[in-house]
Design goal:
28% of the residues lie in helices and 22% in strands. The chain is α/β, with parallel strands linked by helices and 353 residues long. It has two domains: 4-149 and 336-348, Rossmann fold (3-Layer(aba) Sandwich), CATH 3.40.50; 152-329, Dihydrodipicolinate Reductase, domain 2 (2-Layer Sandwich). The strands form three sheets. A six-stranded parallel β-sheet has the order 3-2-1-4-5-6, sandwiched between helices. A six-stranded mixed β-sheet has the order 10-7-11-14-13-12. Strands 8-9 form a two-stranded antiparallel sheet. Strand 1, helix 1 and strand 2 (29-36) form a beta-alpha-beta unit. NADP nicotinamide-adenine-dinucleotide phosphate is lined by residues 10-16, 36-37, 39-40, 69, 83-86, 88-89, 106-108, 150, 180-181, 183-184, 330-331, 334-335.
Length: 353
């Protein structure tokens, strides 16, 4: 049993609100401090946030004062979660790490730094070791850990068993992304209602690079050799609220004799954190649906508290070896829930003490 006081940076945004929802009954983590921009600072959280969650705002958080994101306002917290806008996350997160306050971040800014773990506990838990090569503080007390882009979470989780069993030559992915992925207020309603927008700025570059770090190999000097397959992507915004749906095609290094070999590799795969019994870890991290019309964002993205990856429509192809659909809850598994699971892993491994 662990007990930590936590702060949330970017607490008023879509991801910040999801942190507040998911942490309200967390057995290890208690929210003690909230940070956002100058627009929100000085107000109570209830006054500052335009609450968009479908539960009542938890009472003790409603009363907390929001401050600007400076380490001096976060004294007494053991670490912070960051749901900061990427335009400001780099400097603020580094200031916290330098002040000896660990940062567990959703923002893109530090994901590809050589010494920063880009972490999905079921995919690459050994990468937490990279923290040891960070030098924000002389005594190692301040560090940064990131979770990937919300498409790269389902992509890397679905590729992990396939990569381990067959090796991968190339991946083509089209992501159909929910509007909550753009934060609040996000995409203008006239652009997205009854429509789809076949471009999401900056998204495809992340999808081309982050999976290679996630599936990379940790070296003894704390660096990661990235996986060496190619990824080509198209990111499309669609008028769903939560849950990013991916259409994935994969060329494999070793050819399976039959699609049932791939199905077996996915179903037999065991999560490397299964035995740690972390509070937010889904019992079944990857669910392979047999029904042709599943998984769907509205029906399946909230399974296992939004932490389960759905896969379906697994099939062979004439151009690529296999194709499938993957689905994950973007603001839970792809953001706040993923970061909380990262924190649980780091607590269990002794990095937060
Ligand atoms: P959002 O709704 O726009 O929220 C942004 C947050 O950043 C707000 O709390 C805002 O505070 C704060 N902020 C903005 N400017 C600031 C400043 N100058 N100083 C301090 N705080 C400032 O965005 P979001 O969707 O929650 O995303 C947050 C981060 O997570 C982004 O980096 C995003 O790329 C990443 N992410 C999002 C998702 C998703 O599905 N939404 C998934 C994965 C990763 P105010 O309210 O005071 O302006």
């Amino acid at each position: 049993m662990h007990s930590f006081n936590v702060g949330i940076l970017g607490a008023t945004g879509a991801v910040g609100q999801k942190f507040i929802r998911l942490l309200r009954r967390h057995p290890w983590f208690t929210i003690k401090a909230l940070g956002a921009s100058k627009r929100s600072a000085g107000k109570t959280y209830k006054q500052a946030a335009h609450w968009i969650e479908d539960i009542e705002l938890p009472g003790q958080v409603a009363k907390l004062k929001v401050s600007t994101c400076e380490p001096a306002h976060f004294e007494g917290v053991d670490f912070v979660f960051s749901g900061l806008d990427s335009s400001v996350a780099k400097d603020i997160e580094q200031a916290f790490a330098t002040a000896g306050i660990p940062v567990i971040s959703n923002a893109k800014n530090h994901r590809m730094f050589d010494s920063v773990p880009l972490l999905v506990p079921e995919v690459n838990p050994d990468h937490v070791e990279m923290i040891k090569s960070q030098d924000f503080t002389a005594d190692g007390s301040g560090w940064i850990v990131t979770n990937p882009n919300c498409v790269c979470v389902p992509l890397s989780m679905s590729l992990r068993p396939i990569f381990d069993a067959f090796g991968i030559e190339s991946v083509v992915v089209t992501s159909m992304q929910a509007v909550s992925g753009a934060g609040y207020p996000g995409v203008p309603s006239l652009d997205i209602l009854g429509n789809a927008v076949p471009f999401i700025g900056g998204e495809e570059d992340k999808i081309h690079t982050e999976p290679l770090k996630l599936l990379g190999t940790l070296n003894s000097n704390g660096t990661v050799t990235h996986a060496d397959f190619g990824v080509q992507s198209t990111a499309v915004r669609i008028p769903t609220v939560e849950g990013h749906l991916l259409s994935v095609a994969v060329k494999l290094k070793e050819k399976p004799s039959d699609i049932s070999d791939v199905q077996k590799a996915i179903e037999d795969w065991k999560s490397p954190i299964a035995d740690l019994d972390l509070p937010s870890a889904p019992k079944q991290p990857v669910k392979l649906y047999e029904e042709e019309r599943h998984p769907q964002p509205r029906l399946h993205s909230a399974r296992e508290n939004g932490m389960q990856l759905g896969m379906g429509r697994l099939r062979t192809g004439s151009v690529f070896d296999i194709s499938y659909i993957a689905l994950a809850h973007n603001t839970v598994r792809g953001a706040a829930g993923g970061a909380i699971l990262n924190a649980e892993l780091l607590a269990e491994k002794g990095y937060l003490n």
